[in-house]
Amino acid sequence: MSPRSARLARLSRSVTFSACHRLHSKSLSDEENLKLFGKCNNPNGHGHNYKVVVTVRGEINPVSGMVMNLTDLKEYMQEAIMEPLDHKNLDKDVPYFSEVVSTTENVAVFIWDNLQRLLPRGILYKVEVHETEQNVVVYKGEETIVK
């Protein structure tokens, strides 16, 4: 009997959180920030109902039939996404964004880094952050761009 090759699968789970922020870079003047970020540079901020889809990938365990237990993934997402971000002012309540502009790209990186600390090594595949129905960022960890 020949050995069966590993069955790989991707598993995704989503959560939604609400947060406000102001797009503003400390490296730019007020005029440059307004020109670059427009109405998203409002000094009082603005809010979003973000949807985050986390995808893990791995071998389907022949005993459990799972890539990972969804209950575990739900708990990791609660700790890495909901607790630090839900109903927060990203710029004022999340220390990471005190020095990093709270763009959706950087929100995706923040979530990725938090999940990497919790999930089994090598299982995290991608993080999708939907700022609106039209605006989505997909982050798959450190990838290099040849210039």
Question: Topology, please?
Answer:
Blueprint (H helix, E strand, L loop, with lengths): L7 E14 L8 H8 L8 E14 L10 H16 L2 E2 H4 L10 H15 L5 E7 L5 E4 L8
Parallel strand pairs: 1-3
Antiparallel strand pairs: 1-2, 2-4, 4-5
Distinct helical segment count: 4
Overall SS class: alpha+beta
Count every beta strand, where a strand is a DSSP E run of 2 or more residues: 5
- Runs with pLDDT <50, length 5+? none
CATH class: Alpha Beta
Beta-strand percent range = 25-35%
Strand order of the largest sheet: 3-1-2-4-5
> In which range does the helix fraction lie?
25-40%
Radius of gyration: 18 Å
On the 0 to 100 scale, the average pLDDT is: 94
Topology pattern, helix = H, strand = E: EHEHEHHEE
- In the residues, how many domains can be counted? 1
First CA to last CA: what distance? Answer: 49 Å
CATH superfamily: 6-pyruvoyl tetrahydropterin synthase/QueD
Query: Can you summarize the main beta sheet?
Result: 5 strands, mixed
Q: Would you give the CATH topology?
A: Tetrahydropterin Synthase, Chain A
User: Judging by the overall fold, what is the CATH architecture?
Assistant: 2-Layer Sandwich
Overall form: elongated
Family: Belongs to the PTPS family.
Binding site for Zn(2+): 21, 46, 48
Active site: 40, 87, 131
Organism: Zosterops hypoxanthus
